[in-house]
């Protein structure tokens, strides 16, 4: 079993104001804990993976194929494979959530910082 607590997850800033922390991943799916700061934008992108997620705290505006969707704490979401999507945090508070990608995704093409090599469990 692999375990990692979100309390101990190490966030990395991968774009301005967008932070990701790796959570356990298997051969068929991977999980990430995310934080998007107030005023920050997750760049529009696509990937072959299906993606589902859940907003834990805060509010975001998801931008999917040019349409805007409000996401608030308690909302679950799904992005189909190769669907163009991103998000903006237009709120005054940071937003936190969980994302699951199947299969696990390699480094996103929009990442602006080198990946960490951290492994293990907390």
TrEMBL record:
Domain of life according to the entry: Archaea
Coiled-coil region list: none
Record organism: Natrinema zhouii
UniProt xrefs under SUPFAM superfamilies: RmlC-like cupins
Extent of Low complexity compositional bias: 113-122
Region (Disordered): 88-122
Location of the Cupin type-2 domain: 33-95
Name the UniProt record assigns to this protein: Cupin domain-containing protein
């Amino acid at each position: 079993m692999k375990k990692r607590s979100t309390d101990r997850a190490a966030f990395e800033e991968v774009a301005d104001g967008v932070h990701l922390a790796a959570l356990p991943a298997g051969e068929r799916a991977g999980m990430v804990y995310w934080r998007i700061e107030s005023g920050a934008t997750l760049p529009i992108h696509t990937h072959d993976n299906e993606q589902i997620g859940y907003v834990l705290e805060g509010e975001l505006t998801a931008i999917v194929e040019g349409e805007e969707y409000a996401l608030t704490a308690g909302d679950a979401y799904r992005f189909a494979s190769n669907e163009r999507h991103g998000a903006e945090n237009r709120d005054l508070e940071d937003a936190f959530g969980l994302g699951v990608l199947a299969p696990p995704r390699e480094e996103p093409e929009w990442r602006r910082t080198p990946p960490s090599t951290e492994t293990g469990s907390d």
